[in-house]
Write a structure and sequence with these properties.
The structure holds two protein chains of two kinds. By secondary structure, chain A is of the alpha/beta class. Helices cover about 35% and strands about 25% of the residues of chain A. Chain A is elongated and about 90 Å long. The chains are: A alpha/beta, B alpha/beta.
Chain lengths: ~450, ~140
């Protein structure tokens, strides 16, 4: 896009600004839509308090016929972004519900005109704009009012937000959606016993915004947003790395031509008890031996259980953490893939991580209703890690070969990984465990199964 | 909000510097006039380029503010005509437009360019910088 005087105002939320590619355009009219309880009012309030802290021009917040102002303020005070000193000085709340019912919907334009003269607001919020439809005597009256309002607001440098409990059907027929420069939708849906929240941009004129559903949640600091991971545009300096790293597993590196290639992604598959967690923990701990840092993301073993696994390999868990092992445990009950991915990237950037383990990507698949979404995320994650030169292992639990079942999904993951390593559980009659490399992109590798043992110091391949 | 300020719109105060606003958008005319009046100026308006040429001769404005997109005679042509006429060449011109055309405006003789929409402080600061200070300062 060509920047011809295109100016943005921040949402006060750095992740939402990334999605909008800077924020909302200055002097735009935007609709924030969503069903009750989705977070749209909190999002708007968070934004205006952010701007109130900058102390330049005032902000006008008009409530129509949704909730009394006192009720809004009562609940607002529970959020950390709320600053009582800004109310009345920087942020001017006005309840115009009475005027609207007495004088009709044209009263909104009268209030706005007066505010533009006397207050020169930087931001105007109308909550709820949708309620005006209930007061309009006819659709043409609503259209006329909206036309007047748009003409007036276009004349003055102010950015406007219409908040409303709009449905998707409303967005197809109500005229404010046609004149809006931006439309942001908040959604909430039930997944099993928990709720997932999302935000998505439906329209933003003049911006190459990030499309799709982005995860979000409401915390005491407001709406926390997790932009959807998309594959990176590969930087010019990115080249496939030929350097190899020590996997940390005795006897394994010879199978893959002398070590895993730096920046590669390995799918480590095997049935329950095959040794995947041991293998990947050893891989992560090897970074510490070399003075590096690693991140171990896991959804099955809580921190205590994981500490026990680390101890079983002869390491002191506390010393490992001090030396650079980052453990990220997410309860499977609360899993939301967007938030996990954002946390992973925050840790990678803050901690200068060189190795990442995700144990196990199948958990993400089981807990998500949308398998395509999981696969898109894993693919993009692998691309981001490769660009950063971070070597990763993603484990995947398969159905044992002697049980009739389907390992269909890991075939989709296999396309995204550079290497596929399979661990076979011990089977009768000799109860030998084996490891084999099914695929290793860009390097010679040994396809034969190799026996291995799990000893007190970890996996040893013979 | 103080309602008393709104009563000042349109009240004529003699001896204030005159600004001629050439603009078709009624809301831009309305808000700009209000803020300029508040800033110590008288404002007359014209809604096309030829009407503006007539008013310049009648009003002898201290400043001309013009949009570029005008009917009949556009803002760039208006700038060129005003600067070519010795009687109006000295009147400063501020182009105030939604069209990002600052270079073309300055090449056509405008003294300054400012993008729409209106922002009160930015507009007044620009106008004050273009009108000789003794006029605006003494009479506001």
């Amino acid at each position: 896009m060509i920047d011809r005087g295109y100016k943005c105002i921040s949402t006060g939320n750095s992740e939402m600004d990334k999605i909008l590619k800077g924020g909302f355009p200055v002097n735009s009219i935007n609709v924030i839509m969503g069903q009750p309880g989705t977070g749209k009012t909190i999002f708007a309030e968070q934004m205006i308090f952010h701007h109130a802290r900058q102390e330049d021009r005032p902000i006008l917040y008009l409530t129509t016929l949704s909730e009394p102002m006192s009720k809004i303020l009562t609940y607002l005070q529970r959020f950390t972004f709320f600053d009582p000193e800004k109310v009345g000085s920087s942020i001017h709340y006005r309840d115009i519900g009475f005027d609207l019912t007495e004088k009709g919907i044209g009263a909104l334009n009268d209030h706005l005109k007066e505010a533009l003269h006397l207050l020169s607001p930087k931001i105007i919020v109308v909550d709820s704009f949708k309620a005006l439809h209930d007061l309009a005597e006819s659709p043409p009256e609503m259209r006329r009012m909206l036309y007047e309002l748009t003409s007036m607001l276009s004349a003055y440098e102010t950015t406007v937000f219409f908040i409303g409990e709009y449905t998707e059907e409303n967005s197809r027929v109500m005229p404010e959606f046609a004149i809006a420069d931006g439309i942001v939708q908040f959604l909430r849906s039930a997944v099993s016993t928990r709720d997932e929240r999302f935000v998505r941009v439906l329209k933003l004129r003049g911006s190459s915004y990030l499309e799709g559903l982005h995860g979000c949640r409401i915390t005491s600091s407001g709406v926390d947003i997790f932009p959807r991971l998309v594959s990176p545009s590969v930087p010019e300096k990115y080249t496939w790395q030929q350097a190899r790293i020590n996997s940390g597993i005795d006897g394994f590196d010879e199978i893959v031509g002398g070590g895993l290639l730096r920046g590669s992604t390995t799918l480590l598959e095997g049935s329950a008890g095959a040794g995947k967690s041991n293998f990947s923990l050893q891989f992560a701990l090897q970074a510490l031996r070399e003075g590096g840092r690693s991140l171990y993301v896991n959804f099955q073993e809580n921190p205590t259980q994981l500490a026990r696994s680390i101890s079983a390999l002869g390491f002191n868990p506390d010393e490992c953490k001090a030396a650079g092992l980052e453990l990220l445990y997410e309860s499977p009950v609360e899993l939301q893939i967007d938030s996990i991915i954002v946390k992973i990237f925050r840790l990678i950037e803050e901690q200068n991580i060189q190795r990442v383990v995700i144990d196990a990507i199948g958990d993400l698949e089981v807990l998500s209703r949308d398998l395509d979404r999981v696969h898109d995320y894993i693919y993009s994650l692998a691309q981001h890690l490769a660009v950063r030169g971070i070597t990763s292992i993603m484990t995947y639990e398969t159905v044992p070969s002697h049980i009739v079942g389907s390992n269909f999904h890991n075939r989709r993951f296999s396309n995204m990984s550079d290497n596929i390593v399979r661990l076979e559980s011990p089977k009768a009659p000799d109860f030998i465990r084996t490891v084999s490399c099914l695929k290793a992109r860009g390097t010679v590798h040994d396809l034969k199964p190799h026996p291995f043992k799990i000893t007190g110091s970890g996996i040893q391949v013979s | 909000m103080e309602r008393r300020h709104l009563a000042n719109i349109g009240e004529s105060v003699p001896d204030r510097p005159m600004v001629l606003m050439v603009e078709t958008d009624s809301y831009i005319r309305h808000f700009a006039s209000y803020f300029l009046h508040e800033g110590g100026y008288e404002v007359n308006c014209a809604d096309d380029g030829y009407a503006a040429l007539d008013r310049v001769r009648l009003d002898s404005p201290a400043l001309i503010i013009t949009e570029l997109m005008l009917p009949h005679l556009d803002g760039l042509a208006l700038c060129r005509l005003l600067k070519a006429d010795p009687a109006t060449a000295a009147v400063p011109i501020l182009v105030f437009s939604a069209l990002s055309a600052d270079v073309r405006a300055l090449e056509s003789g405008a003294n300054a360019f400012i993008m729409k929409p209106i922002e009160k402080i930015a507009l007044l600061n620009m106008v004050n910088s273009l009108v000789p200070s003794k006029l605006a300062g003494e009479n506001s």
